[in-house]
């Protein structure tokens, strides 16, 4: 399986980079994982609704340019479906079983994802009703993908 994580914004925090690198190393036994980091749009604190939409659209265009037509796209979105780790593992397993071996996860910038990206997504996934920094979501996502492969293979992993 080939997994691509398309994400907006640069990861600066060393501790997050170390955690992500560790899980990507562990994942290499199960899948090829690439992270595509796209620049975020400058967005001052007090943006109007229209300015927010414009920022998300510009970021969305960059995201869509990195998605291949045959990719199964899973957008991380607060309004997405919440799953247990076992249900998420089942999703990964079914994708592999039914020939969807190229999966792209999309993590938006601080304002979220554009409507165009959400329309392109084959599914929307939520890790919580809470809002998390998009940089932290990278680490949470790669850990859950790793956990998913361990579950699929029936291999032990701490709970």
UniProtKB/TrEMBL annotation:
<dbReference type="InterPro" id="IPR029028">
    <property type="entry name" value="Alpha/beta_knot_MTases"/>
</dbReference>
<feature type="binding site">
    <location>
        <begin position="127"/>
        <end position="132"/>
    </location>
    <ligand>
        <name>S-adenosyl-L-methionine</name>
    </ligand>
</feature>
<keyword id="KW-0808">Transferase</keyword>
<feature type="binding site">
    <location>
        <position position="76"/>
    </location>
    <ligand>
        <name>S-adenosyl-L-methionine</name>
    </ligand>
</feature>
<dbReference type="InterPro" id="IPR003742">
    <property type="entry name" value="RlmH-like"/>
</dbReference>
<dbReference type="GO" id="GO:0032259">
    <property type="term" value="P:methylation"/>
</dbReference>
<dbReference type="Pfam" id="PF02590">
    <property type="entry name" value="SPOUT_MTase"/>
</dbReference>
<feature type="binding site">
    <location>
        <position position="108"/>
    </location>
    <ligand>
        <name>S-adenosyl-L-methionine</name>
    </ligand>
</feature>
<comment type="similarity">
    <text>Belongs to the RNA methyltransferase RlmH family.</text>
</comment>
<protein>
    <recommendedName>
        <fullName>Ribosomal RNA large subunit methyltransferase H</fullName>
        <ecNumber>2.1.1.177</ecNumber>
    </recommendedName>
</protein>
<keyword id="KW-0949">S-adenosyl-L-methionine</keyword>
<comment type="subunit">
    <text>Homodimer.</text>
</comment>
<keyword id="KW-0698">rRNA processing</keyword>
<dbReference type="GO" id="GO:0008168">
    <property type="term" value="F:methyltransferase activity"/>
</dbReference>
<keyword id="KW-0963">Cytoplasm</keyword>
<dbReference type="InterPro" id="IPR029026">
    <property type="entry name" value="tRNA_m1G_MTases_N"/>
</dbReference>
<comment type="function">
    <text>Specifically methylates the pseudouridine at position 1915 (m3Psi1915) in 23S rRNA.</text>
</comment>
<keyword id="KW-0489">Methyltransferase</keyword>
């Amino acid at each position: 399986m080939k997994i691509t994580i398309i994400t907006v914004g640069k990861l600066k925090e060393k501790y997050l980079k170390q955690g992500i690198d560790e899980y990507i190393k562990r994942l290499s036994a199960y899948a090829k994982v690439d992270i595509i980091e796209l620049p975020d749009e400058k967005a001052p604190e007090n943006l109007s609704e229209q300015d927010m939409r414009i920022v998300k659209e510009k970021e969305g265009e960059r995201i869509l340019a990195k998605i291949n037509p045959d990719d199964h796209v899973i957008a991380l979105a607060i309004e997405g479906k919440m799953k247990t780790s076992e249900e998420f593992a089942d999703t990964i397993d079914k994708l592999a079983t039914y020939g969807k071996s190229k999966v792209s996860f999309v993590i938006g910038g601080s304002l979220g994802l554009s409507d165009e990206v959400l329309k392109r997504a084959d599914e929307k996934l939520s890790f919580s009703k809470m809002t998390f920094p998009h940089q932290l979501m990278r680490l949470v996502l790669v850990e859950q993908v790793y956990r998913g492969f361990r579950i699929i293979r029936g291999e032990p992993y701490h709970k």
